[in-house]
Request: fold
Amino acid sequence: MRTIKIFDTTLRDGEQAPSCSMHMNEKIEIALALERLRVDVIEAGFAIASQGDFESIQKICEVVKDSTVCSLARAVPKDIDAAYESLRGAKNGRIHTFLATSPIHMQYKLKMTPEKVLSTIDEMVRYARNYLPEVEFSAEDAMRSEKEFLARALETAIAAGATVVNVPDTVGYATPAEMIEMIKYLQNNVRGIENVTISVHCHNDLGLGVANSLAAVMAGAGQVECTVNGLGERAGNAAMEEVVMGLRTRRSYYDCETNIDATQIYRTSRLVYNLLGLPTPINKAIVGTNAFAHEAGIHQHGVLANRETYEILTPQSIGLMKNSMVFGKHSGRHAVEQRLNELGYKLSKNAVDDLFKRFKQLADKKKVITDQDLEALAGRKILKEPDFFKLDRFTVNCGNHVTSSAVIRLQHNDKLLEEVAIGDGPVDAAYKAIDKMIPAPPHILEDYSINSVTEGNDALGEVIVKIKCGDKNVIGRGLSTDVIEASIMAYINGLNRLL
Ligand code: KIV
Ligand code: ZN
Reply:
């Protein structure tokens, strides 16, 4: 049975998705979760793209010890230099360099002749190999390249020392049958390919990212590049959890396995959605809210008689433990902590203390506390949240015949600050009052969303705000059974993070 390597690019290609940029602490949190998941390779970023990317890769190299850390570079010396510099502290580092090989990319984007592309691949892969023994070469837009030329490009990369050759479907254009044909063609026509790992990197523009990746595996690919929750440029990349659970659930069909600890999937997925401020889709395969919900009576009947009538994988297999306990105001700290552990949250003692305090406050307002409530409370505890300014109290006055106003009192160190403002609705008025007190750099509120964590009138409301400051984005979160309070807390949280 072959072991397929999982190369996770959530922190690089995933981050390229619109409004999915992450800060260093968030990237480190995700890198650690990926390591717990036991991904083989973590693509930590694109070192030359920004100082922030460069430093995040450096930091990830410091904390990640088991997975290989990879840094992306165009096929130019200054990118490869930066990639290498960013990886200096890595226990196992890989430089990933790429150059396009399709006629359209070579002519219009690169403005290079095919011969020039080949000589650049040769020079730049050698250049990278002078730095590190592990070098991956990607032929960007491989699936729209001419087969013969792609074969020459990969052969050149292998002769120059590449240890992994990647076949990206950069624009999500391929079909599974074409993928199989391409991998087989390359196996038969590229000298030395049997000595290196063949990788695939499939985008999801036509919804075939996972199907194409699995087809490539069947044809002989040994590495799949993917992202948590399928995040990535445009329609995203092949979803890690779907590739992994596809291979696992149909193990005898694919005759392949991975090194992934599938019980970490649920937790990692929620962490990524949480940190990016994205709601969990209801119908996402494997990790969607309804992925294990059986609503139709006929299905429920079948599942009760024999789970396998309608369930091909268990929630437990991805680390989603069924809860037989109900939490409420009489629940103890130990039970809450244990449940959080079962849900995959390992929090420090201080974080549990703080969470438990908020659990009790919530239990006063809400009779039954569900797993989703606990996760919402824990989601904010994963990262050390700065709280330079804290909400002390607020009053809003609003209605359809009055101008909305808000009085907000904040605590800052030992001082209490208070301001009043009017606005277009209570949230706007509150935000204007907060802006008078928190000395954040000029910013705009780019997005505001509110979701209920569970059903019912007493549901927790989660507000997520996206605040833009120059080319930086920060996310702020607030959680309360009162949506105005959740809105205020989200804005204060975002501004604290901006500071
Ligand atoms: O989609 C793509 O071609 C890429 C390469 C850099 C591998 O992301
Ligand atoms: Zn990509």
In short: The mean pLDDT is 93. Residues 13, 98, 138, 140, 166, 168, 170, 201, 203 surround 3-methyl-2-oxobutanoic acid (ligand 1) (CB under 6 Å). Residues 333-379 form one domain. The CA atoms of residues 118 and 153 lie 6 Å apart.
